[in-house]
Design a protein that fits this description.
The protein has 94 residues and is an alpha+beta fold. 22% of the residues lie in helices and 40% in strands. The chain is built from 2 helices and 8 strands; from the N terminus they run E-H-E-E-E-E-E-E-H-E.
């Protein structure tokens, strides 16, 4: 993977706190996982304060994405490779 700009993605929320990103993922996704800081999504290490939650909705990933100087976003991204990795390595959240 590599750059988010090269993927099919949608910004769901902008300028979020890390707690807000968890709440958004919880609200939007029944299938959720906890991942550690630095876990690679779209080729970049995820930045955040644990617990960091990502969700899967309609076979797309709902996750936190922090871009320096631009803030923290919640994005919906079409990345089957990352979904597979999250399901394999993430800790399921109830």
């Amino acid at each position: 993977m590599g750059c988010l700009e090269n993927l099919n993605y949608e910004i769901l929320a902008k300028n979020c706190s890390f707690k807000e990103t968890r709440d958004i993922v919880k609200r939007m996704c029944k299938e959720r996982y906890e991942i550690p800081p630095g876990f690679k999504i779209v080729g970049k290490g995820v930045v955040g304060i644990p617990p960091i939650h990502v969700g899967i909705r309609e076979e797309k990933l709902v996750c936190t994405y922090t871009k320096p100087c631009h803030g923290t976003f919640v994005i919906l991204v079409d990345s089957p490779e990352d979904i597979e990795q999250v399901r394999k390595s993430g800790k399921p959240v109830k």
